[in-house]
Amino acid sequence: MTGGRDLRALFSTNDRSVQAVEAFTNRASQWETVAAALTQHLHHVGSPGFDPEDLEAPRNHILVFHGVGGIGKTTLSRMLEAALADAVRRPSQWGEPGWPADRILPVRIDLARSAGTDFEQIVLTIRAALTRIGRPLPAFDLALRRYWEANHPGEPLEEYLRRGGLGARFGQALPQQMQSALADVAQALMLPGTIGSAVGQLTGALVSALREHHRTVRALAGCVRLADLLEAEPDLDTLSFYPHLLAWELAHLPEGKRVVPVVLLDTFEDTGDRTRRDLERLIQRTVWLIPNAFWVITGRSRLQWADPALQGQLDYTGPAAWPGLAHTTVPAARTPGRPAAGRQVLVGDFSPEDCDDYLAHRLTRDGQPLIGENIRQVITARSHGLPLYLDLSVARFLELRRTGSSPQPSDFDHDFPALVARTLTDLTPDERHVLRSISLLDAFDVPLATRAAGLTHEGPALRLTERPFIREDPFGLWPFHLHGLIRSAVRNADDTTDDRWSETDWRQAAQRAFTALGEQHHNPSGPGRLLLIACLRQGLRLARDHRLDLDWLTEAAWTYASDSVWEPLAPPDTDTAADLDTAADALVELLSALARRQHEHRARTVSRLTAVLAAELLPTDLQEMALYYRAKSLRDTGQAAPSRRDYQQVADQGGRLAPAARRGLAHAARLAGDFPTALAAAQNLGWEGRHQRVMGDLYWLQGQPERAAAAYLAGRTEAEQHGKAGEAAHNQALHAFAIALYAPDQATAEIDLAHQLLAGLNLRATTINVRRAELIRDAGSDSVDDQIATLRTELDIAGLASLTPAIELAGAFHQAVLDDRIALNATLIRLREQTSAEDHAYFVDIAHFMAGLPLPADHTAPHWLDSAAATRERWRALVIARRHRLGISQ
Question: When comparing pLDDT for 354 and 259, which is higher?
Answer without folding.
Answer: 259
